[in-house]
Amino acid sequence: MTERRKITDPDVLKGLAQPLRRRLYRLLCQLGPATAGALAKRTESDPGLVSYHLRELGRTGYIEEAPELARDRRERWWRAVPGSTSWSHLDFTDPEGRAIADTVKAQMVADQLERLRAYERERDDWPDEWAEAATSTEGGLRLTPEETRAMSEELQEVLIRWSQVGKGGVDDGREHVFLFLHVFPERP
Questions:
Q1: How far apart are CA 73 and CA 60, in angstroms?
Q2: Is the model's pLDDT at 53 over the cut of 90?
Q3: Model's pTM, two decimal places?
Q4: 162 to 89, 99, 166: CA distances (angstroms)
């Protein structure tokens, strides 16, 4: 079971408020350890700017240095801290904290939708077996808050279990699969 870190400090959450930082964090989670130079090439960004954002992600605990990978004293490798993070806007009650939480959430949703749009633009470039495996679904349920919480926890357990499949990075036909799910009440 992977560890889950609950964020309640607005300064820590602010670590994800910058779009390039979120992208760097995602790349380290997906690809594993990397240097600022390699990440700068992948994001088409200035290496100095990438280094700054990596240090900020490190300062807020999302990533850590991986000195054992360095070939010399000048080379700095970074990796995502194992486990997942979670946060609730309810934990940020002061105006500044709430503004940070609202900003990060809005940017996360925009990123998720952009990633979906990118897939839809490029889906014909994927082999048919990937097109058949990809899915979109939506539905409406009638649940209490307690039932909704229980369903969400069960879905998290399923995601954690499946996140362990394919660990190790061996080229065995696996691709990074992006899934996002929003569960919320709605009044029709």
A1: 24
A2: yes
A3: 0.84
A4: 27, 33, 9
